Amino acid sequence: MKRRDLIASVAAAGAAVAAGLYRFTDLIVKHYAPTPYDDVLAALADREQAERFGASVPGTLDAKALAAKLRTVLKPGGLGAAAKADAIAGRLIEVDGWVVPQSVALLSALAAKA
Amino acid sequence: MTGFIDARTLDAATVLEPDLAIIGGGPAGISLALALADTKLNILLLESGGMNFDPQNQKLYAGAQTGKRYIALDAGRLRLLGGSTNHWGGWCRPLDAIDFERRDWMPHSGWPFPRTALDAYYPRAQKLVEAGPWLYDKAGASIASLGAPLQLGEGGVYTSWFQFSKTRDSNLPTYFGHRYENDLKRAAHVKVMLHANVTGIRLTRDAQRVDRLDVATLNAHGGKHFTVKPRITVLACGGMENVRLLLASNDVMASGIGNQNDLVGRFFADNPTPRDVATLVSFAGAPAPYYGDNLALAKGPILRATFAPSDKFRRARQTTASLTTLEQPVDLDDTGKAAVITTAIALGVDASNAKAYSLGCGMELLPDPERRLTLTGEKDALGLPRLKLNMRMAEADFSLYRHTLKELGRQLLASGTGMLKIISQESWAQNMDWGNHHLGTTRMHDDPKQGVVNADARVHGVGNLYIAGSSVFPTYGASNPTLNLIALTLRLADYLKKVMS
Lengths: 114, 501
Description:
The complex is a heterodimer of chains A (114) and B (501). Chain A has six helices and two strands. Helices cover 62% and strands 7% of the residues of chain A. Chain A has helices at residues 3-25, 38-41, 47-54, 63-74, 78-89, 102-113, and strands at residues 92-95, 98-101. In chain A, helix 3 crosses helix 6 (102-113) and helix 4 packs antiparallel against helix 6. Chain A has two domains: 1-31; 33-113, no CATH class. Chain A starts with a helix and ends with a helix. Chain B is α/β, with parallel strands linked by helices and 501 residues long. Chain B has a single domain (5-500), classed as FAD/NAD(P)-binding domain. Helix content of chain B is 23%, strand content 22%. The longest helix of chain B is centred in the C-terminal third of the chain and has 20 residues, at 395-414. The relative contact order of chain B is 0.21. The A-B interface holds A 44-46, 49-50, 52-53, 55-56, 79-80, 83-84, 87-88, 90, 92, 94-101, 103-104, 107-108 and B 278-279, 334-339, 341-343, 345-348, 406, 409-410, 413-414, 416, 419-424.
């Protein structure tokens, strides 16, 4: 085998292993295809849990509208500040009975719809 | 010390003439007799039962029901000396100041006096129920060594406290009949007559005064009939039996005594106690043990924490009283776990040790004139008509309490302490229990068109007939009534001392 072919084979094998590892880590951290809302979804530290919770969020807004609303809400200080401000101000939504800050509910809903 | 009188041993046609006759030997009747024991008034306490449970006597309580499912009328109360304290749980808490206020948004609400009118009587009532030193909303400092209370932050719900009648170790709560048996026997001017059933309150022809009481023993007990002619009578048979006696005593007033405005028996209330109204998640793990259990302080009172809406919140949000308690640990489903993880991360809180608990509640019902007791054509063994209860709950009874739960949820989030899931109303209804607190059926109001008794607990229009007990509560609150009805009875005792001296 020529040296060039060997390098190409090792590179191909490495790529295959990397792809496999990537898929394997999907079991631990789910990987998502890019969306137009990734700038908003980046606020979620655990998107998978948010997606699961968000499936129960009531409301008719589509992902685009949710993202637009969230960009306004999250802009000043991120999700933490928005969630606390919502709780203090009583901006709450009930999701399957759970009383949660509006920003958390909307972001979870976006995670489910994105 | 003299023994109790057994009515079954009296000669028929006996006529007794005490200064004061108390009908009913429950916590109100016994407290009243003891409070007046140091006067020279000759007091006769007439108790239908004996010292122990008697199924035949208990059957006198049986009645019919319509409307919402409720506890059988002969199951939620006891007909023997000590009354329903023979099966009470010992839960004590004073009513809140707002419970006495007239609120425009709550039709028929308000007492004819503020809570301060009872302040002087609560310490004595507390002593009678043997619930230890008066701590209640100051209990937090005494119990701090067992753990900090949940931080709820600013808002309308706060950690309040129950105290318990001496439920320590194997001791049961104070059963008034047995606990105060010797005190009653020692009282020189108090005579307690057992197995003595009042079957009629007979008015003078002008209906202005009580002339006499018809008293009988059960046929199985000899079927004796005799008469009591007191100067003053106090009816203290509880929120159901007071109604039955007043309505059945209709020989002079055709609609029944005190019922000239069709109020006797209306506004019946109890405290619904649904068992699983919400799930509370504490992010930091198990809260202090006094939230979920009754905890005894060393040589001190027994306490349990409860979530209560503040008076300010109730006024602002126009909501009812409620006392929400932590019950059992529960497991969360996948959506619940996702809710907790997502919310805790968003708030920047570590929820890796989070624990979830079900919440139970004692709720207040809105006053409802159609929730009422009436007489039926069926008679009991003494010939008295039996009762029928029309039980109702309004949508607002649930929805107003929901405001408080949501506020608790808001505060938990705002303080980063935890979060709340509100269970569906349909589920509450399926898990509905009741406090067996019979309230409101002879309500107190200065206006005879709005109440059966006046602020002194005297039946409107009848000069010498008074009512003691929770049947006079015009608005109910969520606190268990025993402590409160005793305080109210002690106030009546002071009044009677003045008018009878």
